[in-house]
Amino acid sequence: MEKNVLEISEVFKAQEVLKNVARVTPVMGPTNLSEDCEVYLKAECLQLTGSFKLRGAYYKISQLSDEEKRKGVIACSAGNHAQGVALGATHNGIKSLICLPATAPLSKVEATRNFGAEICLVNGVYDDAHNRAVELQEEHDYTFIHPFDDPKVIAGQGTIGLEILSQLHDLDAVVVPVGGGGLISGVAFAIKTLRPEVKVYGVQAEGAPSMKVSLEKKEKVRLDGVKTIADGIAVKEPGDLTLELISKYVDEIVTVNDDEIAASILTLMEKQKMVAEGAGAVALAAVLYNKLPVKGKKVVCIVSGGNIDVSILNRAITRGLVKSGRLVSITFDLADRPGALAEVLNVISGLGANVLSVVHERASNSTDVTGCILQIDLETRDQAHVDEIMQKLKEVGYSVKRSF
Q1: Which position among 62, 185, 264, 304 bears the catalytic label?
Q2: Residue 384: its H or E element
Q3: Residue among 10, 42, 9, 39 nearest 24 (CA)
Q4: Among this protein's residues, is 53 annotated catalytic?
Q5: CB 77 within 8 A of CB 122
Q6: Model-level pTM?
Q7: Cis status of the peptide bond prior to 30, with omega within 30 of 0
Q8: pLDDT tens by residue, 75-115
């Protein structure tokens, strides 16, 4: 297969190679996640290694020559590709060296090491790890396993598209996370080749929109920086091959912000009992927050991975609670007199909110001598409940504002 050519036969070949290695992950649904469309979830978070990346990495390694295998392989990754390469190399008796961003979740670093790889941590993000991996590859003549801009890696990821078509015959659209573009390139190529009427949409993090910007400008664009809770798709620059394939086969790419991603992580946990990392939740976020024209459609969202660090998960849950109106902090001025705090709490309790914490500050330059500042963190039902509480407090004479 030439560098810029992808054949559907290669995707079917990858499926055959992977049948005894990668799990055929379930398409779960229909779910109750949206009132506007019929949402199904392709649960690649249940894949061996916890991510779709195993597919492309393993297939690429399986197709190396004996000489390339002898030299060993090197890769760079935010964590998920690393685990796929490590497992694939170890399974084939090959040495592997993985360059990871120093900011990669500890759980991903340790999992990669446990799959048998040697680890090299690099300051910065994915692109910095990539540059270091290229340097080491040239120094030691390793075989480089690119995480997305490689036709065989893309063919391996395309097996997800084949599975979706066999698991759900009458789907209207597939929504796919996008970082460097390997996953959506393979999925879109497979689906559009076999079922061109099915829409394929991509989703990037608002803080890392390199593919979206590149498509808009019709040339590959390198961002100055990326910042998102979805570390698995925090890529500054797309690939040449992936940009070409996405331009041809993908219908639209949209972005979601970190609050929307966090809320989707929380939704998957609560409603589907499914743990997703930030990158794994972006497809659902785009559907839940009406970023795509899928009303009334049967939609498959790919939950691409579940390798989320526990500390990041905790922060994501908190942000998700805030975004969904289930956690709110209210600040306002209060008269410093006996019973004033009790009056406020009576109003709040009467509306069914739960008080989590109270900060009652007297010594403040921003209040009257006889006043104080009150901050109350509340557990609420939803955004409508928050609005009801805020309105009631204003009606009884308090000047209130939300801290978060």
Answers
A1: 304
A2: helix 383-395
A3: 42
A4: yes
A5: no
A6: 0.88
A7: yes
A8: 988 678 989 999 999 999 999 999 988 887 787 788 899 99
How far apart are the C-alpha atoms of 206 and 26, rounded to whole Å?
28
What is the chain's mean pLDDT, rounded? Answer: 92
Mean pLDDT (whole number) for 29-51: 96
CA–CA gap between residue 141 and residue 41 (Å, rounded): 41
Q: Tell me, what amino acid is at 75?
A: A
| Structural contact between residues 168 and 195, judged by C-beta atoms closer than 8 angstroms | no
Mark whether 392 is an active-site residue: no
Mean pLDDT of 206-232: 95
* pLDDT value for 334: 83
Task: Confirm if 203 and 282 have CB atoms less than 8 A apart.
Answer: yes
113-172 pLDDT tens trace: 999 999 999 998 777 888 999 999 999 999 999 999 999 999 999 999 999 999 998 999
User: How much is the pLDDT for 363?
Assistant: 59
Residue 132 near residue 101 (C-beta atoms within 8 A) = no
What is the SS3 assignment for 167-221? HCCCCCEEEEECCCCHHHHHHHHHHHHHCCCCEEEEEEECCCCHHHHHHHHCCCC
Parallel/antiparallel/unpaired status of strands 143-144 and 73-76: parallel
Q: Give the integer Cα–Cα distance in Å for 244 and 301.
A: 23
Out of 53, 108, 152, 192, the active site residue is 53
